[in-house]
Design a protein that fits this description.
The protein is an alpha/beta fold and 359 residues long. The chain contains 8 helices and 17 strands. The longest helix has 41 residues.
Amino acid sequence: MAAAPTLTDLLVIGGGPAGLSAATMFARTLRPGVLYDSGVYRNAPAKESHTIPGFDGADPAAYRSKAAADLARYTNIEVRKGKIVNLVRDDKGFTATDADGRVTTARKVVLATGVKDNLPPIPGLAAQWGRRALHCIFCHGTETANARMGFLLTPPAEGKVPNAVIVGMILSVWAAIPYPAKYLFTHGMDTSTEQGAKDAGIWGLEDVLSMRGFTVVNDKIERIEDTGDSLSVEFGSREAVPVANLLVVPDSSEPNGDAKAWLTEGLLGGAIGFGGALPPIGPDAPPAAMPPRGGVDPRTPTPGLFWAGNAGSPACNVAMAASHGQVAAAVAAHEIGSEDVATAKVVIPKMHAAMGRRH
């Protein structure tokens, strides 16, 4: 016999930093909540994470474990391991179904579902993601200093961060990190031509790159080999280039596989945006009754449905994601309480009138 549906005030979908933070924030109200943790985490391949106060350099799993232990102290939040396979908005609020057929009805929902990164299809690259293939100076880049460094560019494509943006980031944010050798791999884009240089994002910057010691390699990469203490970037047309680490920006990002199927435009009230970002509330919407902290509005176009972390801000790091979770939970809690007050203002006079008729 199927279990009776769970009725709760807040459903948090996602057990990463944003979801754990949202659930902990909401727990402070002592209202009931449910958190679903699918076990899918964007930073799972990484063994270190940085810029998290108190956890700088720690394994991301250690941060999640401590955050989960903190949440476990609050008995009003039920944590479930499993995946949500369907979420719909109805007259009760939201109804979610998990992979085991268990149904949860919630007044509000925080989507902390994260995103999945789609890497360039170069053999051997995926195995290095989060290890020697890195995407962010703040998360992992500082530790690449004083070793041979590669920076990967791939041909322009729809949904991809423009190469000019990536090159601008390399020349600005990464500029102070010392390297004995720096290679800019254009993966087949011929930067000796105007179009190739524009496609690679280096048009007009060739002299700057040369002055800063970059070697531009235009040959197409065949594969990435792990040599134990470094990477070997292999080509079919020239000798391999050894590097200790490689900057890689994903070709695209999209909602995580377990959530992608039900994160529809009908549910969200808008289309999935660049990088897999959930749609934000429109610019003409009235402001939230409780002003969002940190300048981030966690509301989506669908009333009662909120985003947190990479689900709505694919470029944010762990600390930012945790902050988003707190903002979403605070605004959700205020909405719930305000709705209760509005209901009481209608119901109480009716109760008084009914009692008066009985006397």
